[in-house]
Amino acid sequence: MLAECGDAGTHTGEVGGHGDSGRRWRMPVFSVRTRLIAVITIVAGLGMLAVGFVVYLEERGRILRQVDDLLAANLESASYLVTQGDDETGTWESSAQALAAVVQRASPDDNTGTVGIIDGEAALVPGIPLDVDLLTAPDFVARAVAETDDGEPVIGTYAENGVVWRYLATPITIEPPDATTAIFAIAYDIEAELAEIDVAARVWAIASAATLIVIAGAAALVTTRLLRPLRQMRETAERVTAQSVSERLPIQGRDDVSQLAVTMNDMLDRLDEALDSQRRLLSDVGHELKTPITIIRGYLEVVDPDDAGDVRETRDLAVDELERMGQLVQDLASAAALHGPSPIRRVPVDTADLVPQIVRKAQGIDGATVETGEVAEVVTALDPARVTQAMLQLAQNAVTHGGGHLVIAARVSGEELQLSVRDFGPGVPDDAKARVFDRFQRGADAEGRAGSGLGLNIVQLIARAHGGTVRVTDAVGGGALFTMSLPLARSGIRVAPGLVIPPRPPLPATDAVRVPE
């Protein structure tokens, strides 16, 4: 690993010197599990470090305050002894005698030392050895004498000669005063006092390290359990191909990761359905194209090139079959366009103007007798060209299978605009209603009729592109009722003032308009 990193560094130098952009050092890749464990452990470590630092500062401040309180207590004790006097006489014969009593009765403590100073010289020390020998600092006595020159007690810090002492120096004065200058001094070794919390710090460090190990182990177990579905997703995605999309993830638990597994399974279901639909489409297209190709080839193989009549008949048949194949390709292109990212273009449309135009256009279908039913007056956002295409396809279907007499209507039901085409034919059998909008589905009476079988499927795609549906039901009194339900989009929709509705197209004079099925 170290060798690889070294090589990477060398390559980086080559990039800077020779412009070889293809060889660059890359950061090592760590798994999500490793990164989570690292983040959890680092955050926990930083938290422990912050807590330990705050506790250390607080404990250090407490010790320093305690030292000052103890020095103040010694000052009060010394003042009390001097004021009370000797136990037998109630007075002190001299300042030196009072100083000796104070030094003798000073309460010994850890990391402390005391000394009695007479006329600027160290003269008295306790009868028992203490932790701190104040005489080891050669200029401490002089410092205490100088600090108390004004006759007032002082609490200060002595940080010289490699020691740090917090000390109290107070003059001992009796009544009536004598000529002797007596000073009582007591000091605490601050470094020794603070060293006591070092033991606690070491215990804290050991306990924190053990805790971090436990946290890292727990994080490893938890992340392994939580990320197992993600690993299964990756393994499943690696196994999924266009030929095999049957893999599904097991659902365990009710957390976010399990919900992700549910979403992944839903996506695989949609992918499986899309691929299956694609396979069916290719199979259906192949089947639909196979028949005209077989017919054309069969007639071309047996045509008599010397018989002009046979040649003309074969040519007419081939042209007719090619037109049917061309119509099939055109319908497939229309269906594919409705699967695109922007299959429709919504604009504000007034149904009171749109429906009459659809009726006028439907009247141009050969064999159609069109009536106008209920027409709702509502403004909504839709693609008028696509809606017109769908309605004319339903009208053509009514002419082809329902006898030609039909009623076109539009009504509002709740928050839906329902556009309908009703015919008076035999209707659609119940067992065919569920699949009548599938690709290449043709009615039982379609034998010998032109059509690709994609017309009603295109109607369904147009309805779905608008967020709606299309269905077929039995009409009251007989016949079939095809209803396209589109959600109303009225929010913020308004017809611009002065909008000019295009003139209705005139009825065709001779040639009938034929809408391909």
Summarize the structure.
This protein is of the alpha+beta class and 517 residues long. The protein has helices at 2-18, 32-84, 95-105, 140-147, 190-239, 256-302, 308-337, 351-362, 384-402, 430-433, 455-465, and strands spanning 112-118, 121-124, 154-158, 165-172, 182-189, 347-350, 369-375, 379-382, 405-413, 416-423, 469-474, 480-487.
Describe the structure.
The protein has 517 residues and is α+β, with helices and mostly antiparallel strands. It folds into 4 domains: 1-27, no CATH class; 82-193, Beta-Lactamase; 256-335, Helix Hairpins (Orthogonal Bundle); 341-487, Histidine kinase-like ATPase, C-terminal domain (Heat Shock Protein 90, 2-Layer Sandwich). The chain has 11 helices and 12 strands. The protein has helices at residues 2-18, 32-84, 95-105, 140-147, 190-239, 256-302, 308-337, 351-362, 384-402, 430-433, 455-465, and strands spanning 112-118, 121-124, 154-158, 165-172, 182-189, 347-350, 369-375, 379-382, 405-413, 416-423, 469-474, 480-487. The strands form 3 sheets. It has a 5-stranded antiparallel β-sheet, sandwiched between helices. Strands 7-9-10-12-11 form a 5-stranded mixed β-sheet. The protein has a two-stranded antiparallel ribbon with strand order 6-8. Helix 2 (32-84) runs antiparallel to helix 5, helix 5 packs parallel to helix 6 (256-302) and helix 8 packs across helix 9 (384-402). The longest helix is centred in the N-terminal third of the chain and has 53 residues, at 32-84. The protein is rod-shaped and about 160 Å long. Mean pLDDT is 80; it is low at 1-22, 446-451, 494-505 and 507-517.
